[in-house]
Amino acid sequence: MAGRGKLIAVISDEDTVTGFLLCGIGELNKNRHPNFLAVGKDAAVNEIEDTFPQFLNQDDVSLILINQHLAAVVRLTFGTHSSVPVLAITSKEQPYGAAEDSVLCRARAMFTAEDPG
After folding, report:
1. Taking the C-alpha atoms of 23, 62, 52 and 33 in order, what is their torsion angle to the nearest 10 degrees?
2. What distance, in Å, lies between the first and last C-alpha atoms of the chain?
3. Predicted TM-score (pTM) of this structure
4. In the chain, which stretches have pLDDT less than 70?
5. Is 8 helix (H, G, I), strand (E, B) or coil?
6. What is the C-alpha separation between 108 and 52, in angstroms, rounded?
7. pLDDT at site 1
8. Tens of pLDDT along 41-59?
9. How many of the other CB atoms lie within 10 Å of CB of 58?
10. DSSP output for 88-111
11. What are phi and psi of 11, to 5 degrees?
12. Host H or E run for residue 21
């Protein structure tokens, strides 16, 4: 990996993954495993549950983008990692859930916290 940058991994619907691939994020590691998973309507939950930890454990992955509704599938794994930031993104097929958006919840808590003094 000397001289190479870090990767963004994507677990998302087919249109979103295609957009990211067109932007140039698609890579295959030395074992020919991609840094993306296009999840169709008939995707098996175990495929998502298997892929997510693989991305967490890859040394060359520095950020994982995952659709918000798919993040709910791997929520237990999502909450226990510490090495790679995970960002839940919206999907055109699923409504945005502000209550499930961890970044928005943290920002809201930061700006609405009671002043201790």
Report:
1. 60
2. 50
3. 0.75
4. 1-5, 76-82, 94-108, 113-117
5. strand
6. 27
7. 43
8. 777 788 888 899 889 888 8
9. 18
10. EE--SSS---GGG-HHHHHHHHHH
11. -120, 110
12. helix 14-22
As given in the structure block, the two tokens for residue 15 are 């249109």
Token output for 11: 């677990």
Contact status, residue 21 vs residue 10, Cβ threshold 8 Å: no
Distance CA 65, CA 15 (A): 14
Supply the DSSP symbol for 25.
-
Distance CA 49, CA 109 (A): 29
Give pLDDT, residue 103. 59
Tokens, residue 74: 């791997």
Task: State residue 74's pLDDT score.
Answer: 78
